[in-house]
Amino acid sequence: MEVDENTYLQHKRMKVYSLETNSIVERKWFLDLLTCMFGVGAWILVNSLYTQLPLLVQTAPEGWNLPSYLSIAIQTGNVGPLVYGAWRRRYGNRYDRPLTIAVLTSGVASVFLMAGFYDVTGSVFGQTHSVVLCALTFTMALVGCTSSVLFIPSLARYPDIYLVTYMVGEGISGFVPSAVAIVQGIGTTTCRSVVGPDGQRSEVKSTTDALFSSGPFFVGIGSIMCASTVSYLCLEYLPTCKREKIRTPPDDDGHQTIGVGGTDNRSRHLNVSLLAVQGVIVFFANGLLPSIQSFSCLPYGYMAYHFATNLSNIANPVACFVAYYTNRTSKTVIYMLCSVCLVSTVYMLMTAFMSPSPPLRNSTTGIVLIVFMWVLFFGCASYVKLSIAAILRNKGNRGLFLYGCITQIGSTAGALIGFYLINVVQLLKSYEPC
C-alpha cells in the first residue's frame, strides 16, 4: 500500500501515519522527549571525545597522532556488535532490554571515570601513551557502536516517526558537547623567544589555558548520559509509554515493503544500493576523516581545528531537523547529497596529505574554506544516513539491524586505514608553529 503524501504531510505535526497499522495515530509529546533523550545517549560519549581533541592534542604524548589512536579505540568498540550478533543468533532479541540497560550503565561509569583520569599516562613498548584515555575511549565507544544494532531496533515497536525523533537525539548528542566546547575554548597558542644556557635563542610554544579543563566537561556529559538511561527505562517500563507500542511490529523478515519498490527484486536491489551508500558514507564520516582531521585543520591554526570539529558536530542535528520536515525518503536527494560529500571529501583529503603546507594556509580564506568543507560534509552525511535509516525502517527490525551492521563495518575499515596511513607508513606530516 502506498502512503498518500498529502495525507502524511497534513498529519505529521500533531499526528503520524503508522505504516504498521495503516492508520493515523495521535502523536505523544512525551514519547518524542524520551526517544530524543534516548538517542542523545547513543553517541554523546564519542562525540564529546572528538570535541575535546583540540585541547587534548596539545598535551597528550601522541600529539597530532592522538585522533588516529582514539579512532582505533572507538572502532575496537565494534566487538560489542559482534558479540551481540552472535548472541542474537543464539537467543534472538528477547534479552535486548537488559542488554541495553547494561550498555547504558557502562557508559555512565566510563564517562565519570574519564573525568578523573583522562590525563593519566603509561609506558607501552617503551613509549609514553595516554593509556587511560584510550582504554576508557574503548568502553565509551561500546555504547555508540552497539547502539546501531541494539538501540535502534528497539524502536521497531513504536510508530516510525519516533525513529526520526531518535535520530534527532543522535544529532543533539553532537550539538550539546560542541556548544559547550565552543564556550570552553582552547586557549591561545603563541611562539616566544627564549635564550638557552648556551646563549642560543630559540622559539618555544606558549599555550594559555581554556576556560575550564576536560574534567568538568566530562562530568557534565555524564549527567546527560544518566538522563538518557532514565529515558530508556521510562520507554520500556512506564505504563503510559508501553500503551503506545504497536501490537504487531514489522517482522524480522521485512514483509512490509511500503514505498520502497514495486517488486521484491527492485526492493532488494534498492536495499543493497542504499546499504552500499551507507557503508561508503560512514567509511569517511566515522572512520577515515576523524583520524586525519588534525592534519587537515591544524596547519590553519588551533582555532580552525576547534571550529571545524565543533561546528561539524552542530551540523548533525541541523541536518536531522531539516530531514524531519522534508521528504527524507527521496533517493534523488540522497544521491545529490552524496555528490556534495564527494567534493568536500576530496578537498579535505587534499589538505591533509599536503600538510604541513596545504593551500591558502596563511589566509583567512583558507581558514573559512577548511571549516566550511568539514561542516558541509558532516551536514550532508548526517542527512544521508538518516534518510537511509528511514527507508530501511520499512523493512522492520531486520532492516535496521543490517543498517547498524554495515555502519560498523564501514566505520571500522575507515579507522584502520587512517591509522595505517598515519602511524605505519607515516604519509601525513604534522606542522609545528614554532
Topology of helices and strands:
Layout (H helix, E strand, L loop, with lengths): L4 H7 L3 E4 L4 E4 L2 H31 L6 H11 L2 H13 L4 H22 L4 E3 L2 E3 L1 H20 L10 H24 L4 E7 L5 E7 L6 H24 L1 H4 L21 H34 L4 H23 L6 H23 L10 H29 L4 H28 L10
Antiparallel strand pairs: 1-2, 3-4, 5-6
What coarse outline follows from CA principal-axis ratios?
globular
Count of individual helical segments: 14
Share of residues in strands: 5-15%
**Low-pLDDT segments, ≥5 res:** 1-14, 16-23, 249-263
Question: Could you spell the SSE succession in H and E letters?
Answer: HEEHHHHEEHHEEHHHHHHH
- Let me know the number of strands: 6
Spatial gap, N to C terminus? 66 Å
Structural class: mainly alpha
Strand order of the largest sheet: 1-2
Assign a percent range to the helix content.
Answer: 55-70%
The major β-sheet equals: 2 strands, antiparallel
Query: Which value, in Å, is the CA radius of gyration?
Result: 22 Å
Q: What is the residue-averaged pLDDT?
A: 80
Can you walk me through this structure?
By secondary structure, the protein is mainly alpha-helical. The protein is built from 14 helices and six strands. It has helices spanning 5-11, 29-59, 66-76, 79-91, 96-117, 131-150, 161-184, 214-237, 239-242, 264-297, 302-324, 331-353, 364-392, 397-424; strands at residues 15-18, 23-26, 122-124, 127-129, 189-195, 201-207. A hairpin with a 5-residue loop joins β5 (189-195) and β6 (201-207). Belongs to the riboflavin transporter family. It is a multi-pass membrane protein. It is found in: Cell membrane. The chain crosses the membrane at residues 29-46, 66-87, 99-118, 130-152, 164-187, 217-238, 272-292, 304-326, 333-354, 366-388, 400-422.
